[in-house]
Design goal:
Distance between the termini: 52 Å
Largest sheet: none
Number of helices: 8
Helix content: over 70%
Number of strands: 0
Shape: elongated
Strand content: under 5%
Order of helices and strands: HHHHHHHH
Oligomer: single chain
């Protein structure tokens, strides 16, 4: 069997960079955590619509718009890097970070709205899951935002030094770091969209 055979998954796995392996394993583990929590959330109530007397926090809707917008900026990071444009790469990284921060701010406002409606850890039996699910997601996203800041600082330093800029653009390792960041950010986008749809279903159906 040829090594480049698409079916040779063992060969592909063996040749992954350790950072790639860790990221994919981390996303798989995180996905399982969110899956189990979502199932527990659904099982904690008798039927959908238990929150029917309440409205989904407006802040959650706004925060979702910010995160969807970040899906666009994060998708432009690698194309910009591959065209050897560090300014564009930094701009899209910064845009992704700012949208992530905006998302985080509105998540906190959303929790305040939930508490004001009487949905908290001591209120509705399943109310705590709303905080836990969104909180764990925000915790995962926080790690990505810290990493984005590190990448932005690195690019900023390379922009002021032509030699460093050439080294950064020609280094496969630097390319991989940006690629892994983009993949992870998109993963977190998908996770939130799934959670958001679940929240809508529980509040309105």
């Amino acid at each position: 069997m040829k090594k480049d055979n698409p079916g040779n998954w063992f060969y592909k796995i063996e040749n992954l960079h350790p950072y790639q392996t860790l990221l994919y394993l981390g996303m798989f583990g995180s996905g399982l955590i969110f899956l189990f929590l979502a199932i527990a959330f659904l099982a904690s109530q008798d039927s959908p619509g238990i929150y029917g007397e309440f409205n989904l926090p407006q802040s959650f809707i706004v925060s979702s718009m910010f995160l969807v917008g970040s899906a666009y900026t994060s998708s432009k990071i690698m194309p910009s890097f591959l065209t050897n444009s560090l300014p564009k790469t930094k701009r899209f990284l910064t845009g992704t970070l700012l949208l992530g921060l905006s998302f985080s701010g509105f998540q906190f406002l959303g929790w305040k709205e939930l508490a004001a409606k009487g949905i908290d850890f001591t209120g509705l039996p399943s109310g705590s899951f709303l905080y836990v699910l969104s909180g764990i997601h925000l915790f995962h996203l926080l790690g990505a935002m810290i990493y984005a800041l590190v990448l932005i600082v690195q690019i900023q330093k390379s922009e002021t030094d032509q030699v460093k800029g050439i080294i950064l653009l020609s280094n496969p390792y630097e390319k991989m770091k940006l690629d892994l960041f983009s993949i992870y950010w998109k993963f977190m986008d998908v996770v939130w969209i799934v959670l958001f749809v679940l929240f809508i279903w529980m509040f309105h159906f």
